[in-house]
Amino acid sequence: MRLALSVRIAEAPRSKTRIALPFDRLATLAAEAGFEGLSLRPSVVDVEAAADRVAEVRASLRAHGLACAMVTGALSIATNDAETTRALANIAPHLDLAEALGATRVRVMAHGDEDLAPARAAAEAARARGLTLCHQMHWGSLCETVDQALATVAAVGSPGFRLTYEPANLLATSGDAGIDALPRLLPHLGNVYYQNLALDPASTTLFPTRARGAVGVRFVPLGDPAGIDPAPMVARLRDIGYRGWLTVHQPLLAGERVEEVIAEAGRRFRAHLS
Q1: Domain total for the chain?
Q2: Predicted pLDDT of residue 274
Q3: What is the distance between the alpha carbons of residues 30 and 32, in angstroms, rounded to a whole number?
Q4: What residue numbers bound the domain in which 10 lies?
Q5: Chunked mean pLDDT (size 10), the chain, 274 residues
Q6: Residue 213: inside a domain
Q7: CA distance 51 to 45
Q8: Domain membership flag for residue 218
Q9: Beta strand ranges found along the chain (DSSP E)
C-alpha cells in the first residue's frame, strides 16, 4: 500500500473552501511525515483553476517527491450537495485536471439511477485516457452500503468506475465499518479513505443517510479509541493483497494544529504499514 494524505486535514474546521497554510508548506509537512502522495481538493485546486495555479501545484508536488493520489475537482463533490452529480455529465474538465496534476484517480458521486448512464459514459471516457473514476462509499449516494456499492459498480459496468472504501461512512450508513466485506470489495477498489469517527445519537452533526435516516456522528482525533481502529482495516487490506492508495482523510478538529496532526498521522499510519 502507498500512503497518501488528503488536503482536508489542512482545511479550517467546517470549511472546505481553503487550506489554513500555503500549499507548498503543506506539501513539505506531508513529505516530512512520510506520505507518498496528496489527495487534492478544491481548497487547493479545482477544474476552474487557472493553468498557472495548476502548474504551481504540480511543481510543488514534484519538488517534494509527492504523487497526486486523487483529484476532487469541484466543491460540490466534496460537500455532496445537489450539484455533485454534474461532473458525471461533464467529466472532461475533471479528467484534464487529473492529467495536468499527474493523477490517475478522479473522485465522482452518483445519487440516483438517472446517474448510471452518465457515469458509464464518464467512466469509459476516463478509461480511454488511462484514468479511473472513484466513487466514495458515502451517505446520500448510490454507494451507501456495501451491497449498494457493488450493485452500482455492476450497473455502471465499466472498468473505469471503481470504489473508494471508507469505514466511517459505512459505520453511519450500515452500523458496521465494513472490514469483513473488504474481500468482496477488493476487485473494485480504487482507493481507501480513513477518517476517525464515532456514532453519537446526541451529536448535532448528522449524516442524512438513506438507509438509516439522520445518524448522529462525532469526528474524533486520530487515535481516539471511541472511533474506528485502523489497525484491523490495514491488516485485512494487506491480507487480501490490496496494493493501492491508503489515504488519511481526517478533518482538522477545533483546537488542533495542522503541523501536529500531519506529523501524528504520518507516525500512526507508517507504524500500521510497517
Answers
A1: 1
A2: 84
A3: 5
A4: 2-196+228-273
A5: 97 84 97 98 98 98 98 96 96 98 98 97 98 98 97 98 98 96 98 98 96 96 96 97 97 94 97 92
A6: no
A7: 10
A8: no
A9: 2-6, 37-40, 67-71, 105-108, 132-136, 161-165, 189-194, 197-199, 206-209, 213-219, 245-248
CATH number at residue 66: 3.20.20.150
SS3 content of the chain, % helix, strand, coil (to 5): 45, 20, 35
* Contact call for residues 146 and 185 (beta carbons, < 8 A): yes
Q: Any idea which residue has 455533485 for its cell? A: 84
Q: Got the DSSP string for 168-189?
A: HHHHHHHSS--GGGHHHHGGGE
Tell me how long the chain is: 274
The model's pTM is: 0.96
The rounded distance, in Å, linking the Cα atoms of 117 and 209 is 23
What does the pLDDT read at residue 15? 76
Q: Is there a domain that residue 206 lies in?
A: no
pLDDT number for residue 273? 94
What are phi and psi for residue 62, nearest 5 degrees?
-65, -40
The confidence score (pLDDT) of residue 16 equals 82
> Which cell is 240 given?
487480501
Q: Is residue 241 part of a domain?
A: yes
The per-residue pLDDT for 17 is 87
C-alpha grid cell, residue 245 = 492508495
Residue 150's H or E segment, with its range, is helix 146-156
